Amino acid sequence: MSLDVSAVYAQQVTLSSLVQNILYASGVVGAILVVVGLLLIDAGTARRRNLFNSTIEKTLGFFLGFATYYVIGFGFWAGQYYIMEGATMMDSIKDWWIGGAMTNSLAHHTDPGVFPGLNTFQIFIFFLAVFAGIINVLLHFSVSERMKASAYFITCIVAAVVSSILSWAAWGSVGPLTNAGFHDFFGVGFVYLFPAGMALVLTTRLGARPGMMTPHPQVSAYLAPSIGLCAPGLLLIFGGLPMVILSCLFFFDPEALAVSVTMADTSVGVALNNYALVWAGGAITGLLLAYTSKNYAYTLLGPLAGYVAGASGFDVYLPWQSFVVGLLAPFAAYAVYEFTLKRGIDEHKLFPLFLGSGTFGLVMLGIFKAGTPRGGYLGIEEGAYAFQHGEISLVMQLVGTAVCIGAGVVTAFVLAFILERTIGLRVSEEDQVNGLDIKLWDLEPDVVTHADTDAGRVGTRQPEPIGLKDEGLQSA
């Protein structure tokens, strides 16, 4: 069927709409760079005998969450705007599931009276699907090397659905929590606190990895293969997130008036500078903590802690406030990190960064910016969804934080209960000692570390030297 140009809805394909499409597409690129950065950090910190398996499980978990979001997730998030217009959540799901009318319509064939800006909304599926995958990558950091692959992959699908429902409540401008006063510009609640809540349950069920917290009879210490890979991973995340920030803004006439996804008054320049300063503040404090404690972990936790703490308020902070939050945030991560370390809890990423710094940031936002108007939707002047009718409050920050963490706890508790009684949840201690690369993929590390001696291995074959069967190499 040929294109009838005279039947095209020109309002859907204007130059200004294309600019917005490119802007949101750049947010997708930035989010994918974050995934690559996270995989680099994992490659630098996973035990050598689990290096491939840890990376590939994160990658596959990412795509399971990503695909699940396309199938059903976006309809939940978009439902807040359908409800605002008097429709229902089911109407949104019917339109935006993978076979839905809006998901599969061409923008220039769609009457803007039915759905204006369709291209932008369709690109937003891609954008948020990446974050559904990122949630699974983050969760894997807390269960890596000790959770069965089958159990993890099932968890990925469920987590994508539950986090999508949570995003409807806690991220946007007219979801129930947001509309009531909970403020979260960057999705700290459903992207960071939710998997951290799941980790509270799962790490308890899975226990510590051999050699991580105390010496093990077969693993004298837990040795990371290349901590140096973490720094490039960190900078890749730093480089990708500014594009994501742009995708958390709505743009209205005149031309390019920026309003945050929460409908707070903001600007592109201030939001980006807030982002820059929380990283800088966190890096400075992390540096001081690292050299004072002689613990390299704080060189990495510091800038990430600053970012996570400031992310919920990039749209409403003033730059000096962001810098203060960034400077203080690593202390929250430090307190949680030391607390878990002393108690032998094998979780060193999600707890200090998200439960520590993320919660700290949401509370600080409720203190620093209490009374700031936001919520509702631009153009609505009265009623429950009136533009900026709601105000940031400390009470709602605490309520929203508790809901997001609690959603993760409940989800993981139900999953763990079912999985432990069916396919199993935990990798056996023997397989943890020997490593999952050899168990699942018949892969051997190229180097045997002094913590992983051949004498310490349990019931596995010895590696065959490369080229042993190659007569040419033997003669050489």
Automatic annotation (TrEMBL):
The protein's UniProt keywords, in alphabetical order, are: Ammonia transport, Membrane, Transmembrane, Transmembrane helix, Transport
Q: Which Gene3D superfamilies match?
A: Ammonium transporter AmtB like domains
Positions of the UniProt region annotated as Disordered: 452-476
- Cited InterPro entries: Ammonium/urea_transptr, NH4_transpt_AmtB-like_dom
Q: Which domain of life is it from?
A: Bacteria
Specify where it is mainly localized: membrane
The record's subcellular locations are: Membrane
Q: Which segments show compositional bias classed as Basic and acidic residues?
A: 467-476
Query: Where is the chain membrane-spanning?
Result: 22-41, 62-83, 121-139, 151-173, 185-208, 229-252, 272-291, 296-314, 320-337, 349-368, 394-419
How the protein sits in the membrane? Answer: Multi-pass membrane protein
Residues annotated as domain Ammonium transporter AmtB-like: 32-439
Q: Which Pfam families match?
A: Ammonium_transp (PF00909)
Provide the family line. Belongs to the ammonia transporter channel (TC 1.A.11.2) family.
What PANTHER family does this protein map onto?
A: AMMONIUM TRANSPORTER
Q: What is the official name of this protein in its record?
A: Ammonium transporter
- What organism is the protein native to? Sulfitobacter aestuarii
Source organism phylogeny: Bacteria, Pseudomonadati, Pseudomonadota, Alphaproteobacteria, Rhodobacterales
